[in-house]
Design brief:
This protein starts with 7 loop residues before the first strand and ends with a helix. The longest helix has 26 residues, at 124-149. Helix content is 52%, strand content 10%. Strands 3-2-4-1-5-6 form a six-stranded parallel sheet, with helices on both faces. The chain is globular, with a radius of gyration of 21 Å. It has 310 residues and is of the alpha/beta class. It has twelve helices and six strands. The protein binds one RNA strand of 72 nucleotides through α3, α4, α7 and α11.
Amino acid sequence: MATLMNNTLVVLLGPTAVGKTELSIRLAKLLSCDIISADSRQIYKEIDIGTAKPTKEELQEVKHHFIDVLPLDQYYSAAQYETDALALISSQAATQPYQLMVGGSMMYIDAVTKGIDDIPTIEDETREEMRRKFEKEGLDALCAELRLLDPEYYDLVDKKNHKRIVHALEICYQTGRTYTSFRKNQTKERPFRILKIGLRRERENLFARINTRVDQMMQQGLMDEVRRVYPRRELNSLNTVGYKELFKVLDGEWELKMAVERMKKNTRVYAKKQMTWFAHDTDIHWIDVDKLNIEQQIQQISALLESNTE
RNA sequence: GGUCGGUUGGAUGAGAGGCUUAGUCAACGGUCUGCAAAACCGUCUACACCCGUUCGAAUCGGGUACCGACCU
């Protein structure tokens, strides 16, 4: 364990469209390491354009992990990512003193850098049972039940958010214990150094990049990609900005123009959410990239790495 | 010049004297420990203007302005 402390996990994060991908390729080369993607959508196959995956060329330049590896119908979670990413990091520790994690999925990053509680993964049957229960009995009934089974969690949970209520009940049902009993909420120690670097842009600038990128996605043939996965639209992996809006077009509900506007808007909202989340994390070293080219960004990061080595 | 109709928050759009805040969209702020690009919450309280009726008017009456339709 101790030897691993010579290792550093550099985490490059920031809101969508801020410019992580291009920089990450350069950084990976500089650090002679692979890229560990922390992106809950790029991890899936088939959805390439709409998730702004790195290009084929970029993927060839540097080895990427956790991109394009799961079928769309595969269940995955931040907790599973924690397990998988830690295993990978540990296996590469001997050959790569620096490792680079890149992405914007807040919970995935937190799961690896801060840890997530060990809560059993819910079995399909339980999940299905609870889904039916929710549909049949409604949110209020589930809330009432949770109040009996886990009053402590009931007090603090958002009673209108069915995802949280349902999950807590799933735990109670499957384990016979309270959800609270699993919620330790403790930061886990990692056997390596962690350096979080956040990329930041002025809002106007970021939003302009988002709008441009959405238009580019459309030009690159996003609509065809969407058409291919349309039959499986109910999958969670496809409950994703860019796809859900264009499904509406195929349904005949929305005009294409409106869908594109919504994609831009929803991407902006997503970016805002990411920024809100990251704002709480005091470990992040922020770099304002508005006026910096890639070279200058690399320079700043190099400086950070050096000052952090001591 | 005349007759009739309209004027509601950033946009759209209900409401026809009190049940204080329509709704939707946009914008903005936030929550978050298991599908998180998910799910959820909060803020933005307007009735063109003036005078009047009324305990009380976005809602009724009169006038002013602007817009529209029709008439001479």
